[in-house]
Design goal:
Keywords: Membrane, Transmembrane, Transmembrane helix
Transmembrane segments: 6-23
Radius of gyration: 48 Å
CATH topology of the largest domain: Immunoglobulin-like
Strand content: 25-35%
Oligomer: single chain
Distance between the termini: 165 Å
Helix content: 10-25%
Region (Disordered): 69-143
Order of helices and strands: HHHHEEEEEEEEEEE
């Protein structure tokens, strides 16, 4: 049996130890969740807190604190601004399942700025760095928009009744003479991929030049095609593919006419061409018609 002093000292020491333990426990239980959770061993957490915290919603299945997840704080350790996710199979939402993720709580395991799921070597910071992107591919050939150029455009006339064989810009005629007119265009498409269109218009001064009723059109010296009526005069379309040249020749006849005898007039055939690339040219052919003998 010990002395009273020994018993007193022993009892006092036990009391101090128990008091310190109780104070520590109280402090841990009344301070932040971080102290209660992160400063304990996994076994202690599981035995004491895990299930109760899980039931109350303070922590999630993946072990993250609920306040960290809900407040969208950064996932620890990553330079990426990646938020902790709620996917139970991919906690850090880096595209790699937890089972094979080198660090399932860090979307950028090696800290090189590239998310693990897009990093060819998620544990090697020298590979997949975002500050050393691959060189961009070499630029391909530049496509040329180009234009539909009008190389040549004119309208001419000749007096068939007088046996003329040359096209001219001005001729003489008497009432009843038969005249021939031509509208010619040469167009080049300088684009390497676009097809462009031109339209050819014609205005015959019909009071003195009576249209014959039809015309013919020849494209690229091919077979002449008949254009019935005068509708073509309101804009005959010509399509020119990329990198090609087209020649267009429209031929028609008209009869010289006077309203009164002893009259001299100079009517015209006015023609123009426009393109979808905003190019335009105009030209005119003239006929002097009089009732006096032509000299």
């Amino acid at each position: 049996m010990g002395s009273p002093v020994f018993i007193f000292v022993t009892t006092t020491m036990v009391a101090v130890i128990l008091t310190a333990s109780l104070i520590s426990q109280y402090q841990r239980e009344t301070t932040s969740i971080e102290d209660k959770y992160t400063n304990r061993s996994a076994a202690e957490i599981d035995d004491t807190y895990h299930q109760s915290y899980l039931d109350s919603g303070l922590i999630t299945e993946d072990g993250f604190y609920d306040d960290n997840v809900i407040s969208d704080d950064e996932v620890s350790g990553s330079p990426l601004n990646t938020q902790a996710g709620a996917d139970p199979n991919d906690w850090d939402e880096d595209g790699i399942p937890n089972a094979t993720d080198p660090d399932p709580r860090n979307p950028d395991t090696d800290g090189d700025g590239s998310v693990d799921g897009r990093d060819p070597a998620p544990t090697d910071p020298a590979t997949g760095k975002t500050d050393t992107p691959p060189a961009p591919p070499a630029p391909g050939p530049v496509e040329q928009v180009g234009e539909l150029a009008i190389n040549d455009f004119y309208t001419n006339v000749r007096n068939l009744s007088r046996g003329a064989t040359q096209w001219v810009t001005h001729t003489k005629a008497q009432p009843g003479d038969q005249l021939a007119f031509i509208v010619y265009a040469e167009l080049t498409n300088t684009s390497d991929r676009f097809t462009y269109e031109a339209r050819i218009f014609d205005r015959l001064e019909s009071a003195y030049l009576k249209y014959g009723g039809s015309a013919t059109v020849t494209i690229n010296n091919g077979t002449p095609q008949t254009l019935a009526g005068s509708g073509w005069m309101n804009g005959y379309p010509v399509t020119v593919p990329a990198q090609q040249t087209a020649t267009v020749e429209i031929y028609f006849k008209a009869t010289a006419s006077l309203i009164t005898i002893n009259q001299v007039v100079v009517p015209t055939n006015f023609a123009w061409v426009t393109t979808t690339t905003k190019n335009q040219k105009t030209d005119a052919a003239f006929v002097t018609i009089n009732s006096y003998p032509i000299t």
